[in-house]
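lol ok so funny story. i was supposed to be doing the assay writeup but got distracted and ended up predicting the structure for this chain instead. priorities right. anyway since i did it might as well share w the group, maybe its usefull for someone
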Amino acid sequence: MPTVVGVRFKKTSKVYYFDPGDLDLKVDEYVIVETARGLEYGQIVVGSKEVSDQEVVHPLRKVVRRATPEDAQKVQEDKLKERRAFDICLQKIAAHNLPMKLVDVEYAFDNSKITFYFTAEGRVDFRELVKDLAGTFKTRIELRQIGVRDEAKMLGGLGPCGRLLCCATFLGDFEPVSIRMAKEQDLPLNPMKISGICGRLMCCLKFEASVYRELRSKLPPMGAEVETSQGKGRVVGLDVLKGKVKVQLQDAEHVVEFPADQITRKGGPRPAADQAEVPEPEQAESLEDEETLPEEYT
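and the output, tada:
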């Protein structure tokens, strides 16, 4: 099994594995590594360890050397150049009258390429813009269209909960989020309530989805006929976290709440959680059932 170290290039980017070679590298050290894009400056976030071949992208590239104070100074200087390049690109976009929104600019560590990240509703013919930028900066130019979730990850901000965005603080990858997760957690299927500032379903719907799914599988579905210590009735409400069921008794007008282990469902075994009968308000029709990131192109 190969020995690797985990390197991250940005605060919330993916962790990539590299061969440390003979270097004794510690967590939080900065290094220069060889990537498909050339030399890059990154931080060690996973110490030296052995991993299986399946966890490594071959060929496994090497850590070139430890970063020096001069490398750190260069990175800071590149950040200043990125701000200038951002302003220039905005002017070029306006001059070419292109329907695109510039999000971020990134200089390669060796300055061999400048990448401009943008969002747009459709594909944009930016060939003339690329020529203009290449003539201005005298280096290779790449324009990359990103999705709205990537935009939120790059820019950061506060979520509906009042905390810093998960994607901009600790999420390395985006995972698919579906309307079903909101249903299983009894959240209002209103786009304004379950969407993040990017306009997509909130990533945090994924965090507790498996817990709710497991707990809900132990409860009868809505509308099921059950037997209780007070007689027969029909399920009209569920408290998934407390494991309680609200039952409308046949011989009473009021609703009584029972622990799930004190009722018996009539008519056979319970369906799986994803088959439970959950009402779908009309608001849900405007949301996608499954969300994934838009395809990137350059």
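DSSP finds seven helices and 15 strands in the chain. Residues 268-298 have pLDDT under 50 and may be disordered.
back to the writeup now i swear
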